UniProtKB/TrEMBL annotation:
Highest taxon of the lineage: Bacteria
Protein name, as recorded: ABC transporter ATP-binding protein
Organism: Paenibacillus selenitireducens
SMART domains recorded: AAA
Keywords: ATP-binding, Nucleotide-binding, Transport
Similarity comment text for this entry: Belongs to the ABC transporter superfamily.
């Protein structure tokens, strides 16, 4: 599903080089839920940006669904991202003047899906994430945990092959954090969608079956507890 091969990344600012990722190799299989764990500055965001095709690596390759994304043109990559990759952000990134349902429908608007189908798919997902009663509300009328549920529904609406969640519980209290991680695990089990959860919190990471850990740019540990072998 996702294969990272001999990946290295160096930020070049003038004469100064900052090596951030060093010879990273791993594979995530379809239907896995994996935590990408690392402390601040370990290179998580850089790796996430590379895996999502938002940056090109200095060296190495990233394959998603057997396609080397670093070799794609900008246009092809944008289209690939729209159809194959879902995102969940720490700060939800919802559009404030759109209702919950309209936010969830939005990726389908860009795909030209007709109104009635958009609505049906959004309503079904909003029910799945426990927001059946909130579909016509605006994001500001919801709690943080509820807003993150909207963002989760939005990330799934295109039925992507992989969803990247960047510190999805970073703005939430412990109880809500647990509920959101439970929801991601449940969606992974029922929809067989591949999730990568980026986190600096060990407690969040240990909820998943597999942890990929970054330290100072190196992949130092891959724990598998009942998931696919690494
Ligand atoms: N554009 C850049 N130019 C130079 N160095 C950079 C750039 N972006 C990131 N870095 C450096 O790369 C290293 C890894 O940063 P990155 O943001 O990937 O870490 P992180 O694990 O996501 O941290 P955090 O949890 O704090 O977001 C850091 O030392 C950072 O200073």
């Amino acid at each position: 599903m996702l294969r990272v091969q001999n990946l290295s990344h160096v930020f070049r600012n003038g004469s100064e080089d900052t090596p951030v990722l060093k010879e990273i190799n791993f594979t995530i299989h379809k239907g896995e839920i994996v935590a990408l764990l690392g402390s601040s500055g370990s290179g998580k965001s850089t790796l996430l940006n590379l895996m999502a095709g938002l940056m090109k690596p200095t060296e190495g390759s990233i394959f998603i669904a057997d396609q080397a994304i670093e070799k794609m043109s900008e246009n092809k990559l944008a289209e690939f991202r729209r159809t194959n990759i879902g995102f969940i952000f720490q700060a939800y990134e919802l559009i404030s003047h759109m209702t919950v349902r309209e936010n969830v429908e939005l990726p389908l608007v860009f795909q030209g899906v007709k109104r009635s189908e958009r609505r049906d798919r959004a309503m079904a997902l909003l029910e799945k994430v426990g927001l059946k009663e909130k579909t016509e509300m605006f994001p500001s009328q919801l709690s943080g945990g509820q807003q993150q549920r909207v963002s989760i529904a939005r990330s799934l609406i295109t039925m992507p092959s992989i969803v990247f969640a960047d510190e999805p519980t970073g703005n939430l209290d412990t109880k809500t954090e647990n509920e959101i991680i439970n929801l991601l695990i449940e969606l992974n089990e029922t929809l067989h969608i591949t999730f990568v959860i980026v986190t600096h919190e060990q407690e969040v990471a240990t909820r998943t079956k597999r942890i990929i850990q970054l330290r100072d740019g190196y992949l130092i540990d891959q724990t598998v507890a009942g998931g696919h072998p690494a």
